[in-house]
């Protein structure tokens, strides 16, 4: 894959997820704001475009690790199943764990680290909104994507949905992704990149490590939807 400054970030990561780590290290959002060109993102961040393109090319030219997953080759219904069973279940399992850890460290360390209360407020808001967001996908959007995939494979192009074009719920989901992406940018800033202070206890370290892992999973989760599943679904609707 030859990388150029005009390439769209989300499309690059969709083609080879190894590019995500390069964008992540450069502080370039590849999931919620993946619809920009590399050059545009670099200009916004004050990054040398040529350097980032070179690093991307070096990363993607290296031999791929065994087990590197080509999500872009998956049909939409399989991708929806994977997102729901892996990422949605991960969110559901980890939210109460992180909330409990944050509650403890706010209580014990909040006086010396007032930013912890802000982090907890941001995460609690994320937990509520993300839970509702996933339910909308599980009950409305993903079932229709599965139905449309099966119908298209069978040559049945007459199916319709109460919400009209699939672009309508997808636009809502993307807007909600943007909101959560902004929340986690704020959490990252408040936590100094999930860096624990010298007086941090074990619970403090566990809270930040778990919070960082949650953010990383959410980045992949949103990327799979914004940059692969949603474009595939819109294209599937267009061609039926």
From TrEMBL:
Residues 85-232 form the Hemerythrin-like domain. Coiled coil: none annotated. InterPro entries: Hemerythrin-like, RIC_family, ScdA-like_N_sf. Pfam families: Hemerythrin, ScdA_N. It is found in: Cytoplasm. Signal peptide: none annotated. Keywords: Cytoplasm, Iron, Metal-binding. NCBIfam families: FeS_repair_RIC. This is Iron-sulfur cluster repair di-iron protein. The lineage of its organism: Bacteria, Pseudomonadati, Bacteroidota, Chitinophagia, Chitinophagales.
């Amino acid at each position: 894959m030859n990388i150029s400054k005009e390439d769209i970030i989300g499309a690059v990561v969709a083609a080879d997820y190894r590019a995500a780590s390069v964008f992540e290290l450069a502080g370039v959002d590849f999931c919620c704001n993946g619809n920009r060109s590399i050059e545009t993102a670099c200009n916004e961040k004050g990054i040398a475009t040529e350097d980032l393109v070179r690093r991307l090319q070096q990363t993607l030219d290296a031999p791929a690790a065994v087990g590197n997953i080509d999500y872009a080759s998956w049909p939409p219904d399989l991708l929806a199943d994977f997102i729901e069973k892996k990422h949605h279940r991960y969110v559901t399992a980890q939210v109460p764990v992180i909330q409990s850890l944050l509650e403890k460290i706010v209580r014990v360390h909040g006086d010396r680290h007032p930013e912890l209360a802000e982090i907890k407020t941001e995460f609690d808001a994320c937990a509520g909104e993300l839970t509702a967001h996933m339910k909308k996908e599980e009950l409305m959007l993903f079932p229709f994507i599965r139905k449309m995939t099966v119908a298209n494979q069978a040559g049945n192009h007459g199916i319709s949905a109460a919400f009209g074009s699939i672009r309508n719920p997808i636009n809502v989901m993307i807007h909600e992704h943007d909101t959560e992406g902004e929340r986690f940018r704020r959490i990252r800033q408040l936590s100094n990149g999930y860096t624990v202070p010298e007086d941090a206890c074990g619970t403090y370290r566990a809270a930040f490590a778990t919070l960082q892992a949650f953010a990383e999973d959410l980045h992949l989760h949103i990327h799979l939807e914004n940059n692969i599943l949603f474009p595939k679904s819109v294209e599937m609707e267009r061609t039926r």
